[in-house]
Amino acid sequence: MLNISGFLEKFRKFDADKTLQRENIAKNLEKILGINIPSKNLTIKNKVLYVQGSPALKQEIFLKKQQLIQEIGSEIVDIR
Q: H helices of 1-80, where?
């Protein structure tokens, strides 16, 4: 019988990597925008960063989109 905890450990490491990535992106967003965005409001799917927030926040992100993409790096190709 296979050890299920070893199997589940793969997913725990994967989730930890995603959490760390979202925290780093949140720090970069705060540095550029001057607005603290919790990492729980960030979602990454297919190299696209989705930000949950107010319309004013989304407008700020839209205005500085290219700068944010350059600062974040090659892991993100678009921000929505």
A: 4-33, 55-63, 65-72
